[in-house]
Specification:
- The structure is a homodimer of 331-residue chains.
- The first copy, chain A, has helices at 49-66, 106-114, 123-134, 193-197, 199-211, 218-221, 231-239, 243-267, 283-296, 299-302, 316-326; strands spanning 14-19, 23-29, 35-42, 76-81, 85-86, 91-94, 102-104, 118-122, 143-148, 152-158, 161-162, 271-275, 306-309.
- The first copy, chain A, has 331 residues and is an alpha/beta fold.
- The first copy, chain A, has two domains: 9-129 and 315-326, ATPase, nucleotide binding domain (Nucleotidyltransferase, domain 5, 2-Layer Sandwich); 140-310, Nucleotidyltransferase, domain 5, CATH 3.30.420.
- The first copy, chain A, has a five-stranded mixed β-sheet with strand order 3-2-1-4-8, sandwiched between helices. The first copy, chain A, has a five-stranded mixed β-sheet with strand order 11-10-9-12-13, sandwiched between helices. In chain A, strands 5-6-7 form a three-stranded antiparallel β-sheet.
- In chain A, helix 7 (231-239) crosses helix 8.
- Chain A is globular, with a radius of gyration of 20 Å.
- The interface between A and B is large, with 50 and 50 residues.
C-alpha cells in the first residue's frame, strides 16, 4: 500500500494502463519514471468489448484500492491501446488484437467513471515515448520505434516529442506497403510490412511450408500441433540450427530491412529501436535485417542511424502512457 | 536595378539559387516572399562539376552586378540542390540529375567566394518549405510534399518546420520501396516509388510497350522518335483518349496512390502536396492516385488529409531556399 498525500497536480503519479491483446497491465508511475505499483490480468479479448471494459474497470479499481488511492491523488489515468487512435475524440477506431473494437469511446468511458483527466495513446507510440524518456532512446531527439509482435506497430519521436500528426494516428509503420503484390494484410492492403515480417507472418509462413512437406525440428517441438508454432518457437529452432526456421526468419529479416531502409531514407533518424516479442529472437532476425537496411539506405542517412533493441520490454507501454500524461514536451 | 541600403541583417533579402538538372534559377527574395529580381540559365550538367560550378558563380555574380548588390546587402546566399545533402558539412553527397556530383562541398565553395552566410538544402525540402510559407501549404502544420519529375523528391513539414532529421537528409520519399521485386532504381534498390511512378518511369514504360508493338497515338506525336517520349507527352495523349497512355498513367497512379497511403499511415498529415512537372498532367494521373491513397490508408488518417497540387510551380525551390535562410522556425 502506498502512503499518498494529495500532491500538487504536476507532482502526482499517473495510473498507466496498457491494454494488449493478451493482457492488461496497470501501474502507478511517477514523473521521474518510478513504478510505485503494478498489476497484470488477462484481456480475454475474445469475450467482447463490454467484458474487456469490465475487466479494465476492475483492474483500475483494484490498483486504486490496494494502494489506498483516489483519483484526486493522481495526475490522471492514461491508456495505451493498439490500433489507430482518434486522439481528438479519444476513440479507439479499430484495434488489430481485439477484432470487435470499432470506434470505442474509451477515453470518455474512463473519464466518466473516474472523474479525472484521462489520456489515450496508441501502444506503439507509447512504447516510443517510454523508450525515449526512460529506455534505449534517452537523449535521442529523432527516433523511430517498431514493435515486432503479433502485428507491427510504430512510434515516431521528432525533436524530442511524440509525433502524432493531424489527429494522433501517425506512426502506423507496420502498414507501409513494401510489396505491392504481396500477401493480404488485416488492414485490407497487400504486402504491408506487418503482413511480411510480423510474428503472425513468420508463424503462418512456417506452418505453410511444413504443410507443403518441408522438414524441420519445429514439427516435433510442437508435438505435431503445427497451429502451436509461434515466431518465438521459430526463433528457438533457428538458434538450434533448423534450416527451415533460419530461412523463414531470414526472409522476414529481409523485409524488415527493406522497411527500415525506407524509414532511414524518409526520417534520417538518429536511432531505430526494435521492440516487441519478436525482437527477443535476436541475431537470427536482427542481424540480417540491420545489414539489409544499412546496405539499401542512402549512405549519408545509413551512417547516422543506430539500430538497437528496446530496453523496457513489455513495460514500455505503461512507461510511455505515463510520459504521455505528464506532457509531450521536449526533454 | 535595385536600390538597396545596408539593412539590419534580419531585414536583408536572400539570394536564393535552385540548381536543377536542366536550369539554374537565381533570385533575390525578401523575408515576406517578394521576388525583387530573378534570372535563369541552363545547367548543362553533362559538362561536369567544375563547369556547372563556374556557371553557378557567373549566375550569382550577374544577379548581384545587375542589381548593384554586394554580399553585405544580403541575409545570405541559399542553395537548393537535388539529392541527399549532408547539411552539417554543407556537402551535396550525390545528385540524381547530375551523375558526376559526389561529395561536392558546395556550401564552403560559395562561402569562400562570397564571404557571407551560406545555406544548402535539398530541392524538394526547399519546395516543401516554399509551399508551406508562400504556397498551397500556408497555415498547415503537418504536411508532406512530393515533387513528381524526372525523379521523385520529398519534403516534410512537421509542426510548421522543415524536418531534416539527424543530418538534414530526411525526406527521400521517392526512395521508399513499395514493390520489393520491382524494377531497379538509380539508388541501387528495387521498386522504389521513383522507379515506378516518376516521369522517367512513365516514359520508359511507354517506350517499352510501344517497342513491344502496342498501338498508340504517341508514336506519331513524336514522329516515330520514341526516345522523345516524355511523361508530359504521355499525359497529353491520355487526355486525348489514347488507350496506352491512359493505361501507363493509371498504373503509375496506382503506385503513387500506394506510396501516398504509406505516407498517410505513417504521418497522418493534414496535407499532401504534389508538385513537379508530372503534377501538371492533372486528372489522368492525380485522380486515380488520390482514390487509391484514400481507399487504402486507415480511414481516420485518410479522412484528415487533403491531397492538393503545388501552387508555386518551379519557383517553389527558390522560395523555399530563401525561407530556409530566413530561419526554419515555426510560422
Amino acid at each position: 500500500m502506498l502512503k499518498m498525500q494529495v500532491l500538487e497536480k504536476e507532482a502526482r503519479p499517473v495510473l498507466a494502463v496498457d491494454i494488449g491483446g493478451t493482457k492488461i497491465i496497470t501501474a502507478i508511475i511517477t514523473a521521474d519514471g518510478q513504478v510505485l505499483a503494478e498489476a497484470c490480468q488477462p484481456t480475454l479479448a475474445g469475450e467482447g468489448v463490454p467484458a474487456v471494459i469490465g475487466r479494465l474497470f476492475s483492474a483500475i479499481d483494484n490498483l486504486l484500492q490496494q494502494n489506498s488511492l483516489k483519483t484526486s491523488h493522481l495526475r490522471g489515468i492514461s491508456l495505451a491501446v493498439a490500433g489507430p487512435i482518434d486522439s481528438k475524440r479519444g476513440i479507439v477506431t479499430v484495434s488489430p488484437n481485439m477484432p470487435d473494437w470499432h470506434d470505442v469511446p474509451l477515453r470518455e468511458m474512463i473519464r466518466q467513471r473516474y472523474e479525472g483527466e484521462t489520456f489515450l495513446v496508441n501502444d506503439a507510440s507509447a512504447a516510443a515515448l517510454g523508450e525515449h524518456r526512460f529506455g534505449a532512446g534517452r537523449g535521442i531527439n529523432d527516433l523511430v520505434l517498431l514493435t515486432l509482435g503479433t502485428g507491427i506497430g510504430g512510434g515516431i519521436i521528432i525533436d524530442g516529442r511524440l509525433y502524432g500528426g493531424a489527429g494522433g494516428a501517425a506512426g502506423e509503420i507496420g502498414h507501409m506497403v513494401i510489396d505491392v503484390n504481396g500477401p493480404a494484410c488485416g488492414c485490407g492492403r497487400r504486402g504491408c510490412l506487418e503482413a511480411l515480417a510480423s510474428g503472425t507472418a513468420v508463424a503462418r509462413e512456417t506452418i505453410k511450408r511444413l504443410r507443403q512437406g518441408e522438414k524441420s525440428s519445429l514439427a516435433a517441438m510442437v508435438g505435431g500441433r503445427l497451429e502451436d508454432i509461434t515466431a518465438e518457437k521459430v526463433g528457438e529452432a533457428a538458434r538450434q540450427g533448423d534450416g527451415l526456421a533460419q530461412d523463414v526468419l531470414s526472409r522476414a529479416a529481409k523485409y524488415l530491412g527493406v522497411g527500415m531502409a525506407n524509414l532511414i531514407n524518409i526520417f534520417n533518424p538518429q536511432m531505430i529501436i526494435l521492440g516487441g516479442g519478436m525482437a527477443n529472437i535476436g541475431a537470427p532476425l536482427l542481424d540480417p535485417a540491420r545489414q539489409v537496411a544499412l546496405a539499401q539506405a542512402f549512405p549519408i542517412a545509413a551512417g547516422a542511424v543506430s539500430i538497437v533493441t528496446a530496453e523496457l520490454g513489455e513495460a514500455a507501454g505503461i512507461y510511455g502512457a505515463a510520459a504521455f500524461a505528464f506532457g509531450n514536451d521536449r526533454r
